[in-house]
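TICKET: design request
STATUS: open
ATTACHED STRUCTURE:
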């Protein structure tokens, strides 16, 4: 039986490194999904943004407000790269 979705929750950057190093060894996995803080939210360990912020796509800003020391550097270094990849791959 093939795996449809493989959820990885090692935290950043370990989960991204795992995918980069091992995705080629998982040819029968249809989707690999890094879940970051998903399980913290589901378990109620971390608070989610209010519904209006989620609907507006601003959950990142809410999280940044709660954990600026942990997230500011990550957002400043990874978001521009993600934006460039998104723009260049959608053309």
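STATUS: resolved
RESOLUTION: sequence designed for all positions
ATTACHED SEQUENCE:
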């Amino acid at each position: 039986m093939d795996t449809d979705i493989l959820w990885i929750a090692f935290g950043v950057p370990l989960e991204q490194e795992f995918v980069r190093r091992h995705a080629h060894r998982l040819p029968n996995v249809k989707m690999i999904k890094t879940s970051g803080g998903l399980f913290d939210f589901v378990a109620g360990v971390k608070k989610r943004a209010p519904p209006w912020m989620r609907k507006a796509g601003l959950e990142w800003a809410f999280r940044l407000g709660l954990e600026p020391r942990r997230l500011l550097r990550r957002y400043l270094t990874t978001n521009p790269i993600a934006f460039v990849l998104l723009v260049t791959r959608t053309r």
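CLOSING REMARK: Strands lie at 5-8, 31-34. The chain has five helices and two strands.
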